[in-house]
Known about the structure:
The protein is α+β, with helices and mostly antiparallel strands. It has five helices and five strands.
Amino acid sequence: MGGLVLKLAPKERVLINGVVVENGDRRSRFSIMTPQANVLRLRDAIHPDEVNTPVRRVCYAVQLVLSGDMEPDQARQQLLRRVEELSQVFTDADSRKVLAEATEALLAEQFYKCLKSLRTLLPREERLMAYQQ
């Protein structure tokens, strides 16, 4: 079975190419076969009120592409610049690897993969912010 496999809990919502889809009363699993489909689990989405740190701002901008609220061509340069700015702060090897994966995904217009990579930086950012205080 090819494509992206989504496993949804009962009543879970997902955004696919700008359309909100809600699962029924049972767990389900389905495959998205279109290679460039934009998919975002709404439980993983960052709410606009939560966009208060550098990593969250980049993740939110990627979400805007996935939701269809920003054109990929318009967003790509801005996102690449923001990822580069993050690389000035996250200098450890693991974070550099994550940022390289996010950059590759952006260049390949794989925005979901980019978001997935960037989200792994959120706990690190939280620790850094706590340390600063």
